[in-house]
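Support request, please re-run this one:
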Amino acid sequence: MDDIAQQLGVSKKTLYTHFPNKESLVESCVFYFFDYVTSEIRKISEAAKTPIEELSDIKMFMMRQIKNEKISPQFQLKKYYPEIFKVLQEKQMAFMVARMSSSLEKGVALGLFRSNLNIPFTARLYFNGMMGIKDQRLFPAEMFQHSQLMADYLEYHLRAICTEKGLTIYNTIENKAYV
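Re-run finished. Output below.
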């Protein structure tokens, strides 16, 4: 709290008038950032021409947000503020499963994703995978760069669910990314 007050140029007493303790400050920051990220993802989703473009643009947005973090803030949150982490995880799951379900339905309707997809299962599997790549036991930062894990997981996911038409769009997007 001393460091935060100093960075803000206010006294610790002033900081405590807005936040009764460090936990409430952490909670406020976590959910402010969650609201920001979900708002940006909604904008990306609305602007995307296809669900494949949507997922690719979301990946790029998230990669800019994490900027090669060595340790996941969520890991630290889980360790030091488990109740906040639990609420955040529930909010993330609800948002991501709903967003992914909508994207999958649109992709199936456009013939970009396989018509036999089990959408509730696939949406939850995607969420679980995205959370799983943050697990330091499975993917230690010394071995894996988080932004590359995100890119690899998205490719794995899309190659599993896309039709030939969808793969053509995905390959075009990926080829543009390397030019």
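The chain has one domain: 23-177. The first helix runs from residue 2 to 8.
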